[in-house]
Amino acid sequence: MILQLSEDQRNKIALLARCILPGAHGQPSAAEIDLEYAGIDRALKSRPELAGNFCTILDRFDSDAEDFLAHLSETDFNLLMTLICAAYLMDSSVKKALGYSGQEALTPNRGGFGAEELVLEMMQQPKRYRDI
Amino acid sequence: MSTTTTEVLIIGAGLSGAVAALELSRAGIAITCLEQGEWPDPGAYPGDKTDFELQAMGPWHANPNIRQAPADYPILDDSSEIKPMLYNAVGGSTILYSAHWMRFQPGDFCVRSLDGVADDWPISYRDLAPYYDLNDQEFGVSGIAGDPAYPDHPEYPLPPLPIQTWGEKVAKAHHRLGWHWWPGSNAIASQPYRNRRPCVQRSTCRAGCNEGAKASVDRSHWPEALANGVKLVTGARVFRILLNDKGQASAALYRDAEGNTQRVDANLVLLACHAIGSARLLLNSANSQFPDGLANRSGQVGRNLMMHPLSRIVGFFDEPMMSWQGHWGQSIYSMEFSETRAEHDFVRGAKWNLGPSGGPLGAALYPMDEARSWGNALHHRVNRWLGRSAVWGITAEDLPDPHNRLVVDRDHVDADGDPTIRIHYQVSENSRRMLDFMTSRAIESFQEAGAYDTSARRLVTDNGWHALGTCRMGSDPQTSVVDPWMRSHDVENLYIIDGSVFVTSSSVNPAATIAALARRCANQLIKTRYDTGVASQ
Questions:
Q1: Which of B160, B335, B361 sits opposite A89 (nearest CB)?
Q2: By C-alpha distance, which of B169, B98, B162, B161 is closest to B320?
Q3: Residue B189 is part of which domain span?
Q4: Would you tell me which residues 117-136 of chain B have a C-beta closer than 8 angstroms to some C-beta of chain A?
Q5: What is the per-residue pLDDT for A2?
Q6: What CATH number should be reported for the domain holding residue B187?
Q7: Does B474 touch chain A (CB under 8 A)?
């Protein structure tokens, strides 16, 4: 069962997200993606157990995002950041801007593991363990 | 309540339980295994899903108190500086482990003789070496033999996984520094091996291996054990071991998935429930003969808990390296500082393992030693981390301390109403000094490798993967719980075959040694099958 967020809560998410994730460093602003709707719904679908506390935090937020973030408890700050950052970072346009394609199945090079010559040199070193 | 009968009862279907079940079943011994969890569903592993990182921080978290899955039992950890990590299912914690496959060094078995601290094990590296060798094949370990930090041993069955760009950078740095390094040995297939596919470097090992490349024992051991006739009962949480009038372990009571109490009678009982679970079961099985806990005349059950304090150092590089990919096991490791040195202000040492650094959400949320960051600072943090960083994980050898212990807390109960366990654990001053030293050296390592910056967490509290030592092995029944064959000193047909029997912890990941000990014990049981005291039913 996914908690349905109210319009007021979605507006608060948008305000907070724009403070947390402005456009910078080649990344889109949270305002440029559908974070407060599809993004946050996707994050909460993954972690429905966080929805209750998330809404409680939102309900305490008024309008000054900087001040609100600075004074949240560590637990609440982490929960808020987890959901808003996840909503942002799972967005396809954000991933594309990051050059991040997700955790992919690759075909590793089976020709060698790397630094083989240095391994051979290490093999020639004296044994370095102790024993009795 | 129904009662069934078996020759050998194994409690726990994780690493040690699977190794013992397979070995004993090959000898034709009738076995029942009770496992409180269920079979994992590889299709549900989140590694190939877009919300992987978010899932790994919640329902796939390794801390059972965060995960709170139905198979988990609460572990009270507010008195512990390090939080426990484990998994309850067929396969146990191997479902989530990173599969670093490391042998103890020979000196790890004799720290009292070498360094005057803790205790020597009653067995040596030479006693375990044949079982390390056998298990390297069984687990399909990838790696390369010849490491000067170890005695010679047979070649691993598979070549090393790629050490990756970051591994090459650091390997070259260590070469220049004159420091030890070696390609990581991992129980992760680098090529097709038996029923396992090769690793695809997805870097999601810690939430289950989607490809089946990692040797989690649900895949590497249980299929053959079941084919050999082992009866595996899931959803079966054992809450008490019973003794007969001869003082032998004769039965276990468990609650099935529907909450009904069931009973299994057995000739031999093998505990394989993890260092926390096995101690809990023994303490909860107190009776008139053992008022302080079953098999606990020594008073050592639950004591000497070791948890491998860990430092994590991130190195930041200019070069894009796609370091969100790669096996989450070790790219390379270093034993440069694993042994005691006269110039150090601590005894013993640490093992270093280098690995990838994960995805963007982990980067955004990673607890740095700085103020909270959002806005431009948050973007900067993610950009410099993602794909351009590598991580040294450093595990300190944790010496046994009887005050670091597990105790039953009767004020708190699990879902079945049985008393749960509380951890009392403090990181020692020796470990703190060690991690301070190691952190400085790891920064030096990264700087030599070309990192333009580093970030260090000297003590990572949410990383108690290696709980060890709560039922220590020894020759003296006054000071230890099991003998050198892992047989209880007090109950002749009760064996403890998991990491709880460790006398000391080494600095290396314990999985290979847990598996070797379990296999050695199983072999001894097979050899002495008709000499061992068994319960009369």
A1: B361
A2: B169
A3: 3-43+57-527
A4: 125
A5: 59
A6: 3.50.50.60
A7: no
